[in-house]
Write a structure and sequence with these properties.
There is one protein chain. This protein has about 120 residues and is of the alpha/beta class. The protein has a single domain (about 5-115), classed as Roll (2,3-Dihydroxybiphenyl 1,2-Dioxygenase, domain 1). It is about 25% helix and about 35% strand. It has 3 helices and 8 strands. It has helices at about 15-25, 45-55, 75-80; strands at about 5-10, 30, 35-40, 40-45, 65-70, 90-95, 100-105, 115. The longest helix is centred in the first third of the chain and has 12 residues, at about 15-25. The protein is globular and about 45 Å long.
């Protein structure tokens, strides 16, 4: 058995596709109308479809999981975040851990937690 994808729930798939393409360089591999598979194994699921399947509420900003990306030029990435067309809601601004890794945490447009760190 192997893990194939990570699925996150989003209210506006087109907005989320643009977010992940413009900031992270991810591209759409397959669009099933309400379920979009992107490069790097990220799947975007339409929130209304998810609610119907799960019969449960979606809890944005629950901080129970995060998407983790690595970027060697993290200062350049921070500038990219600052100039993004939509406001970014930060959880932590750029910081350096005691072991030397620099990281920044923020939410995507739907409250999914993202961490970007320098490679270890």
């Amino acid at each position: 058995m192997k893990l194939k994808n990570v699925l996150i729930v989003v209210e506006d798939i087109e907005k989320s596709i643009a977010f992940y393409k413009e900031l992270f360089g991810l591209n759409v591999i397959l669009d099933n109308g309400g379920n979009v598979i992107m490069t790097e194994g990220l799947v975007l699921q339409d929130a209304e479809i998810w609610r119907r399947f799960m019969e449960r509420d979606i809890i944005p900003q629950n901080n129970a999981t995060e998407l983790y990306f690595e970027e060697s030029d993290i200062e350049r990435f921070v500038e990219k975040l600052k100039s993004y067309k939509e406001p970014i809601q930060y959880v932590t601004h750029l910081m350096e851990h005691p072991w030397g890794q620099k990281v920044i945490r923020f939410y995507d447009p739907d409250g999914n937690l993202i961490e970007v760190g320098t490679p270890m």
